Amino acid sequence: MKTLFIIGILLTLFSCTHTYQFTYTKKSGIEQLLVTKAVGEAFQTMTVDMKGSKVFIDVACLMRDEQSYIRKAFTHWFLDVGVLVSEYPWDADYIVSVLVKVAGTDGDQVLLGVPSIPLTTSLTTPGLTFFSQIVQEGRVEMEVMIYSAKAGIKEKTSSLKGNSYYKKYTIFFISYTRKNIP
Fold it and tell me: Which tens digits make up the pLDDT trace of 1-16?
């Protein structure tokens, strides 16, 4: 009887597993938050003295999905500091040329234990985790040059960099999360 009780407890404990839910969109919510947080952090180091001027924002980015977001983020930032934003370059006092070197996420996952193994389409063995680590990091690096067709280069900012992270650790059945995103 004691043996059956111990087996029952072990089966109950080891059948409680958590599977990381992958996204069905291009980027998961965490990945989106990581990129937007890194962009926001990069803006914290940017200073320009153009209050009352009108700018056109031109963004060059290898990542097509992030290009429109970064342009809008710059638009909001300039409006917050009192700079007007034009939709047309010929209507602006200055062109803000943004070269996005990187805007994305990297991740890594470590599992020490036995992963769950699918036996059939509806039945899997329970996983046994001694230690697991899921790390996702967001990174943004941009160069900004402000120029006028009449006067040439007004200003080149130092490289704007931003980082964000999401880290989840599990030791046996206890999980701990560290992150700088909401």
Answer: 778 767 666 555 554 4
